[in-house]
Amino acid sequence: MSESRWVRDIRVYCPVAPATLAAMIAGQAAAVEDDPTAAALLAILRTPPLGDFGRYREVVEVALGYEGFRPGEGAVPTLGAVGQPSWSPTVILTAIYDAEADVSALTDTLLAAHPWDVPVIALSEPYQLLVRR
How far, CA to CA in Å, does 85 sit from each of 49, 57, 115? Predict the structure, then answer.
């Protein structure tokens, strides 16, 4: 039988070095731990109440990819130049947490630590997560 609990998730789109993404694609998942930007954001995402799965703690999902963008006037891009298309090696770090938890201090910390001019950090609406009894 299954039960459920109400949770939310936080997704942080995190730039990584090209070598980090290449290593991860090659199967070296722990390379994300050695990337300075990812390591800093992971440390925050591993702070309770984020990533709490009862018997498991510090649970963070990682998706690999690229983010495409064109900085407009007034932008201060970390990568690329104003008006020019660019692609950033990016990982998406996702942590789930109890829907009632107050994570405002952690979100402020994430925003301060993120290197992008306009960080991409998304908070979900509450949803049900199935759990075993």
Answer: 38, 39, 19
